[in-house]
Design brief:
Order of helices and strands: HHHHHHHHH
Distance between the termini: 108 Å
Helix content: 55-70%
Number of helices: 9
Largest sheet: none
Shape: globular
Strand content: under 5%
């Protein structure tokens, strides 16, 4: 065949310019399990409801009480209230019926001394006991109101303790009796020192520092368990001081021989001492009922 008769090759299309863009990914669907979960949002209404609920309830996360728990709660609170008021009333009755009442004069040193047991029991037992029980009684109050009531009861106890201490100190000086020689006086001094320190620290930390609520929240939260522990310790020391003081008063006034014969005044003094012990048992049982669970909740939200 002639070479001139060979048909020419068809002309090829020009080569396209190299595409530098990356290849498109395959059209595949990403499984939903590999995606991060959507952000959880709380609606404004739910947030407002949660805030209102927390402000109305002192311990909103506490489980609901059953019938038996409510009966125990009512019984303990009623018994504690009767004992706290009754121990002061019994002390006043003993003072007027057996010790001729009260007075503050140079010619009435015995009546001046009578202020000491009455005011110390009122301060260390009645007012301090109610102050401790507030965290158990006021379950539906806002926390700031509970703190104010707590401070008010301690403010009522403070002048009682100071005046009671000055009364016995002046009585000893008038009678020429040495001060701070007995175990009762040593326990009382420690209890008074802790009470004053607790009141100052509590007033500054849990009331004044609320002015800067967010800035001091961590500090106040870390101080809550310490303040609670020393508060219980102060109350127990006050109970010990009152019991030892009543025993000392009975021995000095009646004498060991007459006290052993158990006259009616000795029975009244022993009844006051047993009432103080009963108050301590009920209050400590109530504190145990709130327990570490309460402390943890307060530490999480101390405001």
């Amino acid at each position: 065949m002639d070479s001139n008769s060979v048909s020419p090759m068809p002309e090829l299309a020009p080569i396209a310019e190299f595409d530098k863009s990356p290849p498109s990914p395959p059209n595949e669907e990403v499984p939903m399990d590999d995606l991060p979960p959507p952000p959880v949002t709380i609606s404004q209404a739910e947030g407002k409801k949660l805030k209102v609920q927390r402000s109305r309830s002192y311990d909103s996360e506490e489980h609901e009480r059953g019938a038996c728990e409510w009966c125990e709660y009512a019984l303990v609170i009623t018994l504690a209230t009767i004992l706290l008021i009754g121990v002061s009333a019994l002390t006043i009755f003993w003072t007027f019926f057996y010790r001729e009442g009260y007075g503050w004069a140079d010619d009435l040193p015995e009546k001046q001394f009578n202020l000491h047991p009455t005011l110390m029991i009122a301060g260390f037992i009645t007012f301090s006991g109610f102050s401790v029980l507030l965290y158990r009684i006021c379950r539906c109050f806002r926390r700031i109101y509970v703190k104010l009531l707590h401070a008010i009861f301690h403010a009522l106890a403070f002048p009682c303790i100071v005046i009671g201490f000055l009364a016995v100190l002046d009585f000893h000086n008038k009678k020429g009796i040495n001060n701070f020689y007995s175990l009762h006086s040593w326990i009382g001094l420690v209890a008074m020192g802790l009470f004053g320190l607790q009141y100052a620290v509590g007033f500054f930390s849990f009331l004044l520092l609320l002015i800067c609520n967010k800035g001091t929240a961590n500090f106040r939260a870390s101080l809550v368990p310490i303040h609670a522990a020393f508060g219980v310790l102060t109350f127990v020391l006050g109970v010990c001081a009152c019991v030892t003081g009543l025993t000392e008063k009975a021995l000095f006034t009646l004498g060991s021989a007459e006290y052993a014969m158990m006259p009616t005044e000795a029975i009244v003094i022993n009844a006051i001492g047993m009432s103080v012990v009963a108050v301590a048992i009920v209050v400590l049982y109530t504190v145990r009922g709130t327990g570490g669970y309460r402390l943890r909740k307060v530490a999480q939200n101390p405001s």
